[in-house]
Design goal:
With about 270 residues, the chain is of the alpha+beta class. The chain has helices at about 10-15, 45-55, 95-110, 125-130, 145-155, 195-210, 225-245, 255-270; strands at about 20, 30-35, 35-40, 80-85, 165, 175, 185, 190. The chain folds into 2 domains: about 10-85, Phosphorylase Kinase, domain 1, CATH 3.30.200.20; about 95-270, Alpha-Beta Complex (Aminoglycoside 3'-phosphotransferase, Chain: A, domain 2).
């Protein structure tokens, strides 16, 4: 897939002059130029809001990519955002560390108010999230109608408080370093219980990283984790259904949906 490079006007706006080098993460759309990372965005409001949060977020226990303003003082210029490059590397399997870090990171986000635009989001991911939390009805999709009915039949009313969370939490979005604290990247904002982020990570670990189901034991002290895990599964499945039904869908997502259902079946039936 071809991705647009940040042009010279964008480079000058963020006061960099090096050659853009495409990074592996971020869907292959991010570029490193000198010591900053340029990332495209289609939503100026959300991107600017995230930049303001990260600009004010301080911690001695984790690092975050500090946002950089353009010369006109904006956080987004011609559809691009910029932040400082953070050192570190991905380390699969550090689930215990990732769980502990999630607790620390989400505690730092407490007190941030829910923005009004959250309720107006209608992308595939936001819709899947609302379905998982029973704010929208489940999709009519033959492959998942029966298992989703079963899951919704065992879900209980959520009584955990919502807050701002990183909704795509996982070792893939944490950079580890021997000399520095862990860095948290690719912030994906949602308004849900803090430990829902951990549940999403566990589902992804089981389905895509070949993790043993014993990693669920790492979450034994998390309140209502079985419920959070089921909702995380529903969200991931409904994301694939959303892509499957999208007019621009370029391939069949059924295998991904089946993989989720097969691996999570013992948990659904527990």
């Amino acid at each position: 897939m071809k991705h647009n490079l940040p042009n010279q006007i964008v480079l000058e706006a963020f006061e960099v002059s090096g050659k853009p080098i495409r990074l592996k993460g971020g869907g292959g759309t991010c570029y490193r130029v000198d010591d900053i990372v340029l990332k495209p965005t289609k939503d100026i409001v959300v991107a600017s809001w995230i930049a303001k949060i990260y600009d004010n977020l301080k911690s001695d226990e984790f690092r975050i990519p500090k946002p950089i303003r353009a010369k006109d003082n904006s956080w987004v210029y011609n559809g691009w955002t910029a932040n400082k490059f953070v050192e570190g590397k991905h380390e699969d399997g550090n689930y215990d560390k990732a769980i502990k870090l999630s607790k620390i990171f989400h505690k730092a986000l407490l007190g941030i108010s829910k923005p009004t635009f959250f309720d107006n989001r209608n992308d595939i991911w936001a819709i899947a999230d609302r379905i998982a939390w029973e704010e929208l009805p489940p999709p009519d999709f033959e492959l998942t109608n029966k298992p989703l009915r079963k899951i919704f039949g065992i879900l209980k009313k959520n009584e955990l408080p919502n807050q701002l969370i990183h909704g795509d939490w996982g070792t893939g979005n944490i950079l580890f370093s021997k000399e520095l604290g862990p860095a948290i990247i690719d912030f994906s904002p949602y308004w849900r219980p803090a430990d829902f982020a951990i549940a999403v990570m566990i589902v992804d670990a089981l389905v895509y990283e070949g993790a043993d189901k014993s990693i669920i034991d790492l979450c034994s002290d998390i309140q209502n984790f079985d419920q959070l895990l089921l909702r995380a599964l529903v969200r991931r499945i409904c994301e694939y259904i959303g892509h499957q039904n999208h007019p621009e869908n370029d391939h069949d997502r059924s295998d991904d949906i089946i993989k989720h259902l097969n691996i999570m079946e013992p948990i659904i039936n527990a």
